[in-house]
What we know:
Blueprint: E1 3-4, E2 27-28, E3 31-32, E4 43-47, E5 58-66, E6 70-78, E7 89-95, E8 135-141, E9 147-156, E10 162-167, E11 174-175, E12 182-183, E13 199-202, E14 222-230, H1 231-234, E15 241-250, E16 257-262, E17 287-291, E18 296-299, H2 303-310, E19 313-315, E20 323-341, E21 346-363, E22 369-377, E23 380-388
Antiparallel strand pairs: 1-2, 3-14, 4-5, 5-6, 6-14, 7-8, 7-15, 8-9, 9-10, 9-11, 12-13, 13-14, 15-16, 15-17, 17-18, 19-20, 20-21, 20-22, 22-23
Amino acid sequence: MKKTITLATLGLLSVAALPSMAQAPITVDGKLAATEVAANGYQLVGRDTGARGFGDAGVLALYAAADANNLYFFLVGTLESSATEIKNSLQVFIDRPGVDGIPVGTALPLPADPTSGPATSFQKMNAKLDLAADLGVAIKGTGAAGQVQMGAVVYTPGTTPTATAMVASGSTPLNAVTGAAFTVPASTTGTFAPFAGAQVAYLTSANLSSNPGFATNGNAPANGLEIVVSRSAMGIPATGGQVRIFALQNNQDGGFISSDYIPQGPADAANPGSGADFTAIAGTQAATLTVTASGLSIVTSNRNAAAAALKFGVYPNPAPAAATIDYVVAGQQNVSLDVFNSLGQRVRTVASGTQSGKQSYPLTNLTAGAYFVKLRVGDQMTSQKVVVE
């Protein structure tokens, strides 16, 4: 039986008051239905159209929705599955408004090893993200057929950043065959209070190519990971705010990332693997959601849109020997301008600090090869590939 999240179910609103509220038309069951992708329902955040890093498994698309009481996320995808077990993990990282997370470009701290029971897929996840994540939600196989477990992590910044993880589903695994939802107790307090009342469902397929959404690269109908969290538990103001998210496929313990990530997994990307640095990968590897009092809108994470807003360009390209970098900073904002080689290694910092107005820099003395010029102005990030001949 499908389990539908309603405001009354969560004890947040009386039944009599329901008709006056705009509620997202979403059933939490691991199925993305066409009726759920609506004006007040799921909106497309991004897709992964690249090669599959872990064989016939991975992610296709990411959706988000909001109503007056909840945030919803749907990651269309399928983990490796066999007759005996489900492998790998799907992870969603969240950067909440007004909450300090692990600074962009800082390796995620690792949670302490569990004293008993299974570990989460965050156990070895030490990537550098393009958002200041303060929370993470994930599923991974339990070692049994048709079962996954929900994991959660809370990140705390500081001189020595920390991570605290838990197997939220405990001894009650999620049934990946039926898509039955697991509910975190509404009474949850302390470190994991942001997940109080959260629900997670995952519906598996035999493999990614048999996922109903495969042929359309993630359009409904499709199967995958579905998450709903309470706005009040998450500390999202009633008026809303900006929430940033990033989703990916990882291995069982989180120590080796697949090439499947959203937004903007490059079409020719290899697996980032262990210790990945998403700030050094072309594009903005996070999506921004503008959450309102009763819904949300997707702020494009497309680097082309950011480039247009910043009037960012590198020319000539290809560059026979030298190139010029131009951009415009509106007002006074913090700026960083860096050059990375094709291995993702920073080879030069061109500019760093507060700037205003039109900027222009020469790009010289680089050996022949491909480079990525990455520009960050305030919260806007973009990059451009340049070939030096």
